[in-house]
Amino acid sequence: MDQGSDNNKENKPGAGFTAYLFKRVVLAVFLIAAVLVGLSVGIDYFQKPKIAQQALPQKAPSRLALERVEERPTASVPHNRETAARSLQNNGTQTQAEAPAAPPAAAQLPVEGRADQQPASPAAAPANGDHAPVKPVPQPVPGAHEPPAAPQPPHASPAQPDTFRPIGVSFAEAVIAPIDHELNDRFWGWRPNDIINVTDNVNQFQLGVLEVTRRTVVQLTERISRTGYNDAFDRNLENAMNYLMIRAGSYWFPSPEAKYKESVDELVKYKNNLLAGKARFYIRTDNLIPLLAAYEDLLGSSDENLVKLKEADGSQVSFFSADDYFYYAKGVASAMATVLEAVERDFSTTLENRRGSNELLHHAISSCRRAAVLDPWIVFNGDLDGILANHRAHMAAPISHARFYLGQLIKTLST
User: Fold this and answer.
1) CA angle, 187 as apex, 202 and 182 as ends, to 5°?
2) Are the C-beta atoms of 368 and 261 separated by less than 8 Å?
3) Considering the entire predicted model, what is its pTM?
4) Rounded distance between C-alpha atoms, residue 79 and residue 89, angstroms
5) C-alpha dihedral (361, 365, 366, 367), degrees to nearest 10
6) What is the pLDDT of residues 60-116, one digit of tens each?
7) Hey, which residues does 390 pair with through a beta bridge?
8) Does 182 reside within a domain?
9) 250 DSSP 8-state letter
10) CB neighbours (10 Å) of residue 91?
11) How far apart are the first and last CA of the chain?
């Protein structure tokens, strides 16, 4: 009866599998441990000679080795101070006469005509008899073999890109660059006339650039390119001026993008004519003052929109109008700074005749550049003494400075 019960226990389902699995796990753990131990022993075996060799301290030289070193000829320099002293004591028979004699003074002079001979620096004299006598190195005679000094090239003056360019080319390029960027390089091109208007900030910036370009081309056509009121208009500039007068928000018939691009083409033709000597550009004071006056008026309009508290109808300036005024002024400042920098180059002779004019113009350009780089994530219209910023007031500061300096420049040029 007991034997049958034992057989039943052994034949229970799962009992044999559990024992088999346990044996296999124990065997696997044993094999893994054996492999790890074997790898550790092998790594230690292969790395032990290198480690031992590196960690083994250098053995001190034996007495026999030292005696052998002492028996060597004294021509070789002893290895250290102790060996040198012991060598001098044991070899007392060697006298100073056996040392190599110093060469005569004449031998110290370099041989004439030896171009390949390189003078060596004199060796340090032996101190306290620590070293064997060293053969003196010939000393070079000053000026004996010094090659003639190579002629130094003259100091190169800084590059002047406008030196060989006709006057007015830089000004024409400055007029073209801002509007050409908005038409051809700006993503999505010209935007004020888009049916779906979702980027009002860029739209206002482009309108500011357009207004500066219009006023500049008008002055270039009517004054700067003419000798006087009786002179004919430049045909290319006249076409460019007329094309720019197309309303910016017009969608079709005509398309402002197409006409503005035609205006750019006409300005490029005028620039090419300047390079070829077929067009004219006059830098008289009475031509520059009207251009600066037009800029002063435009900056004054932008400044008023930036500082006003109420609209023309009496309503408060809204949050959505504040960013429009901000980016319009930014577009004006960006394009105006580019043109004023060209004025500084092409009208340099006119400005130098009036003391202080260059400094005033430089301040006006710097103020426009400061306004052009203002780029907040959100244009707030908070109170001037509130927690939130008033970005219109931030933009108004450099705009009003630029207007002031242009006004001073006009007065200086008028006297």
Assistant:
1) 60
2) no
3) 0.62
4) 16
5) 100
6) 554 544 444 444 444 444 444 454 445 445 544 444 444 444 444 444 444 344 444
7) 381
8) yes
9) -
10) 14
11) 136
**Residue 92 falls within a domain, yes or no?**
no
Q: How many CB atoms lie within 10 A of CB 218?
A: 18
Residue with tokens 């008008």: 218
Which amino acid, residue 302?
Answer: S
Contact between 291 and 171 under an 8 Å Cβ cutoff? The reply is no
Residue range 184-228, pLDDT digits in tens? 999 999 999 988 888 899 999 999 999 999 999 999 999 999 998
- How many independent structural domains does the chain possess? 1
Output the pLDDT for position 9.
43
Whether residue 251 lies inside any domain: the answer is: yes
Between CA 212 and CA 220 the distance in angstroms is 12
Residues 229-277 have pLDDT tens digits of 899 999 999 999 999 999 998 888 889 999 999 999 999 999 999 999 9
Please list, in sequence order, all residues whose beta carbon lies within 8 angstroms of the beta carbon of residue 130, skipping any fewer than 6 positions away.
Answer: 81, 84
The C-alpha R_g of the chain, in whole angstroms, comes to: 46
- Cβ distance 392 to 326 under 8 Å? yes
Q: What is the DSSP string of 202-215?
A: HHHHHHHHHHHHHH
Cβ-contact 226, 282 below 8 angstroms: yes
Which domain, by its residues, includes 376? Answer: 169-414
Question: Partners of 359 in the beta sheet?
Answer: none
Distances (CA, A) of 33 to 22, 29, 44, 328: 17, 6, 17, 78
pLDDT at 2: 44
Record the tokens describing residue 357, joined without a space. Answer: 């004019």
Contacts of 390 (CB under 8 A, 6+ apart): 380, 381, 382, 383, 384
Task: Check the CA dihedral 306-308-310-314 and report its sign.
Answer: negative
Contact 324, 379 (CB under 8 A): no
Q: What's the token pair of residue 354?
A: 């009036």
239 within 8 A of 266, measured Cβ to Cβ: yes
- Round to whole Å and give the CA distance between 78 and 325: 89
Question: Residue 316 forms beta bridges with which residues?
Answer: 310
Enumerate the β-bridge partners of residue 381.
Answer: 390
Residue 90 lies in a domain: no
Q: Count how many residues are written for the chain.
A: 415
Distance in angstroms (rounded) separating the CA atoms of residues 205 and 182: 9
